[in-house]
Amino acid sequence: MTLTPIEQIAAQGGPAADEVSGRFPVVVGVETKPAAERDHLMADLRFGEVFSDHMARAVWRADSGWGERRLEAYGPKAMAPGASVLHYGQEVFEGLKAYRHADGSVWTFRPTWNAARLNASARRLALPELSVEDFLASLVDLVRADVEWVPSEEGSTLYLRPFLYASESFLGVRAARTVTYDLIASPCGPYFKGGFHPVSIWVTDEYHRAAVGGTGAAKTSGNYAASLLPQLEAAERGFDQVCYLDSTNTHLEELGGMNVFVVARDGVVRTPALTGTILEGCTRNSIIQLLRDRSVDVHEEHIALDWLVEALRSGEVTEMFACGTAAVVTAIGRLAGRGFDEQVGAGEPGEVTQSIYDELTSIQLGKLPDRHGWLYRLA
Ligand SMILES: *Cc1c(COP(=O)(O)O)cnc(C)c1O
Predict the structure, then answer these.
(1) Banded pLDDT at 194 (limits 50, 70, 90)
(2) Are 53 and 33 in contact (CB under 8 A)?
(3) Could you report the per-residue pLDDT of 31-40, keeping only the tens digit for each?
(4) What is the pLDDT of residue 57?
(5) Is 258 near ligand 1, meaning CB less than 6 Å away?
(6) Which residues contact 74 (CB under 8 A, 6 or more apart)?
(7) CA atoms within 13 A on the CB side of 223
(8) What gap in Å lies between CA 277 and CA 282, rounded to an integer?
(9) With left for phi above 0 and alpha for psi between -120 and 50, is residue 216 left, alpha or beta?
(10) Residues 6+ apart with CB under 8 A from 331
(11) Is residue 193 pLDDT above 70, yes or no?
């Protein structure tokens, strides 16, 4: 089996935290919040509302490359109103998590996957690449400086958001010659407060997130901006999330920020193939691996909507789920679109969905052996 370019880089692992730490030193004079204020902020965590004390930053210039790397205080930064990211959206980002294990140590999951994907996205958006070593160093240095911000409550994590954007003040349309890499961190509560509820999905044939040759395989802001109106309209119809089709409205692609899986009664699991219009999710890849470890037949292939609707009606498809770093796994309980509205399974998360969620989160939390070397110790 041939590996994708992201899989190849991810498979090489990377230098250990102690080999790269110190590349992003703290600038002097950063004030940190008193413990009592931090505890108060971390008492009732949701997603992406609270931020830690520091952020990592490095600036690239076309004539001199990457300059000084540092940790600064998290907070508003001056940016020119002419900065080209604000006009043309030249930006890419990543999302990963730091987990606190029972012994207090802090780990992340397959960070070289995110490093490789950041660079793949950067190439598509004509942004400079950051070395795997610098990417890892930014995670290590930020998490070590803000280690008190890694929650210890089970299911809570420190969400890490690296991003790269055109910070040059210039309104001409060309690749920016000044680019900023920032990493911010946000302590987050369990994604499913009150349990693991199946969500309802609206399959849109009116909007598309990606077309061949477009930016669908890049993790870039514009894809998300374009998903907000379809999401609002689906919510007005009473649905939780949108699923996109390919631009001919034939095959299933993915949700706005999650990949999708289909489980059949005969045990075969299907997920849309990486055709260049789908984001190559780390969670998707990890789930495929865990299923194959169980000798499950996993097909990465085109999934025709017509087939899927018929298979839901006949009971041939018994489970569907979506996956991504933030929620890990989300059971899909209802799939509807123009001309169909089908219940998926029995209203409860199916056996495969639940077991793959349990297995993956147990590996991430160090409760099951890390057979594939996916965990990376940060602190
Ligand atoms: C980030 C993202 C995913 C999930 O990727 P993970 O690496 O599993 O977090 C899936 N689809 C899209 C469009 C995304 O942006």
Answers:
(1) low
(2) yes
(3) 999 999 999 9
(4) 98
(5) yes
(6) 51, 52, 53, 54, 55, 184, 185
(7) 25
(8) 16
(9) alpha
(10) 196, 197, 198, 199, 319, 320, 321, 348, 349, 350, 353, 354
(11) no
pLDDT digits (tens, 9 = 90+) for 245-288: 999 999 999 999 999 999 999 999 999 999 999 999 999 999 99
Residue with tokens 């920032």: 182
pLDDT above 90 coverage of the chain, percent: 94
CA-114 nearest atom, ligand 1: 7
Q: State the closest ligand 1 atom to the C-alpha of 283, by its place in the atom list counted from 1.
A: 8
Residue 218 Cα, ligand 1 centroid: separation in angstroms?
10
Residue 254 in contact with ligand 1 by CB distance below 6 A: yes
Angle subtended by helix axes 132-145 and 111-124, to nearest 10: 120
pLDDT of residue 195: 65
Nearest CA to 184 out of 20, 57, 39, 324 is that of 57
What SS3 class is residue 312? helix
Q: What is the Cα 338 distance to its own chain's centre? A: 29
Q: What integer pLDDT is reported at residue 65 of this predicted model?
A: 98
> Diameter of the chain by CA atoms?
65
Q: Specify the residue with its C-alpha closest to ligand 1, atom 5.
A: 281
Q: Which two tokens stand for residue 204?
A: 């849109």
Report how far ligand 1's centroid is from the alpha carbon of 325 (Å): 7
Report the C-alpha gap between 98 and 150 in whole angstroms: 7
| Ligand 1 pocket test target in 4, 219, 323 with most atoms within 8 Å of CB | 219
CA gap 361, 329 in Å, rounded: 9
Contact 257 CB / ligand 1 (< 6 Å) = yes
Residue range 158-183: mean pLDDT, rounded: 98
Q: How far is the CA of 27 from the centre of ligand 1 (A)?
A: 33
In this structure, the dihedral spanned by the alpha carbons of residues 93, 97, 98 and 101, taken in order and rounded to 10 degrees, is -170
Q: Are the beta carbons of 278 and 272 closer than 8 angstroms? A: yes
259 pocket-lining for ligand 1 (C-beta < 6 Å): yes
Of ligand 1's listed atoms, the one at least distance from the Cα of 113 is: 7
CB of 281 shorter than 6 A to ligand 1? yes
Which residue minimizes the CA distance to atom 14 of ligand 1? 257
323: CA distance to ligand 1 center in Å?
8
